[in-house]
Amino acid sequence: MSHLPSRHRRLLSSSSPRVARAGGFTLIELMITIALAGILMTVAAPSMTRMIGANRVQAEVSGFVTARSEAIKEGQPVSVCASTDGSTCLAANTWQKGWIVFPDPNGNGTVDSGEAALRARPALRGNDTFVSTPAKTAVVFNRDGFTSNLNTSVVTFALHTADNVAKSTRCVAVGIGGRLTTQLAGEGSCT
Asked: Which pTM value belongs to this model?
């Protein structure tokens, strides 16, 4: 240590009057950060819930969009029907059990010999329900993208979550012209 200048010797000596401050957060800084995070979560949670609900409806409507697009692309009717096994149609308005999209040249809304599923959607998770009003077991899109079996101007498919809270309800309205509209509870025909 004798070869160091005197100021360096003082810093290295054990009797130095300077005490180095440890780095890190103080308790107050940590509490303020936690409080701000809590406020942000309170603001973000409702938006997150709405976003999740909207994404679920978009996933449900994708089968109808696929069917309509395929009908136009292939120039022949394509149907969507409720299905539990991914290859045959159910004769019930229980869309929450799953559904299939398939080419349907005769437009009868049922899977006949030689008509294989283009896409299958498995059952919804939990006790969520997805039913149509008026009751429909299949939707047929003709080669122009219009629906051909609705017998009404609009069929509304309502997605109700297991807790059946109205603000969680989302709907897909399928019009006779093939138009698909997503709705919140209380909008249009969504109940």
From this structure: 0.70
